[in-house]
C-alpha cells in the first residue's frame, strides 16, 4: 500500500493509449501527439509476442488496429514488427509500426524531464502470470537509470499483477475494476472483494471505471491506503465530479478537450 502522506508522483491527467482518438492507439505517433497536448503521463496496453517480446496492442487479435490477422500472441515479434498499425486510423498515419516496450521506455526517458507511463498488462489468453512477470521485469530494467520514473503497472487480471509482484515487488501496481454489482443498503461485501484483492497484491492504487466512484468508495480506498484512479473520462461534467471527489488520476481519450495543466 502507498503512503498517503507522501505526494503521489504521477500526474493527475493521463492520456489513454497515447492520444486515444486523434492518432492510432498504442503507437509512438499517439504518444507524440499526447505529449504535444501537454500530457506528461501516457497509458498503453502491453502484451507478449509468441517469442516473449513485450509490445503494445490492446486487442487479443490483430484485425482491428493492424494489417495482420489472427491472435497477436501467436505471432513472433519479427512478423509483428512488419505490420501497419496506423492505416486503419487514417492515411496520415499509414506505415506506423507497433512499438515494443523498449520503444516506450526510450520515448518516456527521452522527453524533457521524462514522461511517466501507465503500463496496462494485457495478457493473451492463458498467459496472465507470465505476461505480468515479463512486463514487470522488463520495465524495471528499462527504467533502472530513472527509478523515479518507474511505470505504474495495472491490470484487470489479478494473475497478471501477481506475476508482476513476484518479478518486481518494488514496482507500483494498480488493480483495474470494470464493474461491480449494485450493493444492498449497508452491504459492504461488494467493495470488500476489490479491496481484498488490492491488498493481497500489495497494490498502491485502484483504477475503477469512472461511474463506479462515489464518495463512499473513495473513503474506503483511502482507509486502505490506496490511491484512486479512474478511466475513461471524456466528458467535462464527469471530470469535474471526479475531481471534486479528490481522485488522484483521470485517464482520458480526449486529450484535445482537457488541459492537463489547468483542468
List keywords for this structure.
263 residues, alpha/beta, TIM Barrel, 9-stranded mixed β-sheet, 9 strands, 30% helix
Low-confidence stretches: none
Supply the number of structural domains: 1
Count helical runs.
8
Backbone CA Rg = 18 Å
How does the major sheet shape up? 9 strands, mixed
CATH topology: TIM Barrel
Query: What is the CATH superfamily classification?
Result: Phosphatidylinositol (PI) phosphodiesterase
CATH class: Alpha Beta
How would you state the average pLDDT, rounded? 96
Number of strands: 9
N to C succession of SSEs: EHEEHHEHEHEHEHEHE
Descriptive overview:
The chain is α/β, with parallel strands linked by helices. The protein has one domain (13-252): Phosphatidylinositol (PI) phosphodiesterase (TIM Barrel, Alpha-Beta Barrel). It is 30% helix and 16% strand. It has a nine-stranded mixed sheet. Strand 4, helix 4 and strand 5 (152-155) form a beta-alpha-beta unit.
Amino acid at each position: 500500500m502507498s503512503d498517503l502522506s507522501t505526494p503521489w508522483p504521477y500526474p493527475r491527467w493521463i492520456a489513454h493509449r497515447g492520444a486515444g482518438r486523434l492518432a492510432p492507439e498504442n503507437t509512438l505517433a499517439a504518444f507524440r501527439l499526447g505529449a504535444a497536448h501537454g500530457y506528461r503521463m501516457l497509458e498503453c496496453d502491453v502484451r507478449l509476442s509468441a517469442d516473449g517480446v513485450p509490445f503494445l496492442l490492446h486487442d487479443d487479435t490483430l484485425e482491428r488496429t493492424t494489417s495482420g490477422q489472427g491472435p497477436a500472441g501467436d505471432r513472433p515479434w519479427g512478423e509483428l514488427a512488419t505490420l501497419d498499425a496506423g492505416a486503419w486510423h487514417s492515411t496520415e498515419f499509414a506505415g506506423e509500426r507497433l512499438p515494443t516496450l523498449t520503444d516506450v521506455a526510450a520515448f518516456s526517458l527521452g522527453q524533457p524531464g521524462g514522461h511517466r507511463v501507465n503500463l496496462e498488462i494485457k495478457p493473451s489468453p492463458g498467459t496472465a502470470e507470465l505476461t505480468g512477470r515479463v512486463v514487470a521485469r522488463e520495465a524495471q530494467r528499462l527504467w533502472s537509470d530513472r527509478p523515479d520514473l518507474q511505470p505504474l503497472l495495472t491490470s484487470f487480471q489479478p494473475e497478471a499483477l501477481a506475476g508482476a509482484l513476484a518479478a518486481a515487488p518494488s514496482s507500483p501496481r494498480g488493480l483495474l475494476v470494470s464493474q461491480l454489482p449494485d450493493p444492498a443498503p449497508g452491504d459492504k461485501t461488494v467493495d470488500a472483494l476489490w479491496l481484498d484483492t488490492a491488498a493481497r497484491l500489495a497494490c498502491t492504487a485502484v483504477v475503477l471505471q469512472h461511474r463506479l466512484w462515489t464518495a463512499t468508495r473513495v473513503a474506503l480506498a483511502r482507509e486502505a491506503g490506496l490511491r484512486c484512479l479512474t478511466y475513461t473520462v471524456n466528458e467535462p461534467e464527469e471530470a469535474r465530479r471526479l475531481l471534486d471527489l479528490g481522485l488522484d488520476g483521470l485517464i482520458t481519450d480526449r486529450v484535445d478537450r482537457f488541459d492537463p495543466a489547468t483542468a
